[in-house]
Amino acid sequence: MNSEPRPYTELPGLIALEGPARSLPSPLQARPLSQQSGFHVSRRPGSGMTFAEHRAYRYGDPLRDLDWKVTARRGQPHVRTWEAEHSDSLYLAVDLTPALFFGSRWSTRAATAADCAAFLAWQAFLAQDPVSLTRVSSAHESVARPVRHRRGLITALHQLATRQQMLAPGQPVDPSPWPAWLSTLQALKQLRGTLVILTSPSQLDEQALDQVQSMQKRLAPVIALITDPVDQLAQGPVVHATNGRHSGQAHLGGLECLTHIRASMVRRGLPHLCVDTSRPVAEQFAEVIQGTHHASAT
User: What is the pLDDT of residues 172-183, one digit of tens each?
Assistant: First the structure.
């Protein structure tokens, strides 16, 4: 039996998570999470309709929906179809920096984070909510535009899998990208919905948590900590770290780091949960929903 952790998630695996996502309620609505101070996820439908796609005319379709240009181009009648416009989106921000390319059990943190993001993205898609899936691999990543349709979601999942597979052992660990990326997010004018940040405890600091807290009037934030059994040790593994000019060693995680970050989030009223690298995410989310998962923080 191979004891090495799964380094990456492949696209077929991310697509296959649609099944568990369809069969389980959202862990973001689980009671242990929703009871945390400040947490609130709402669905506020907009007042209008948004264009969905063109399709061939069917008997009974309103004539006002005929698109004459598409009809002429394709040689048969086509109509525009519409869907209810939702003003809330799910913003998923997945940490794909080298700091997450580590795992001591079933999977690396990066692969677990990708699985979590895909699971939550499928649930939002099935609920007809727009999904923004940003791969945060540096401080300069732009916020991904929300998508509504299967093709757009699968494209986003393909990009997630591809970017994750660029990680490799021995890559230097740069400073956390979160303060700069959260500043980019804060600058966006139209933000409404839920923000889920998927990262490891060692990547967060007080500045990043303050930024997340400051956005609570515009977004319902949830921090999903991607943990590993080494986080229960006094000190996490040592890796090579650099800031571009100076290099040295850094410790990834450890019990003191995990305890400090969770206490900081509780103090700020930031809802959070933990997903471990030791088991499949669907299995853990089922326990979060049932209220039996030890990592759904209170």
Answer: 888 899 999 999
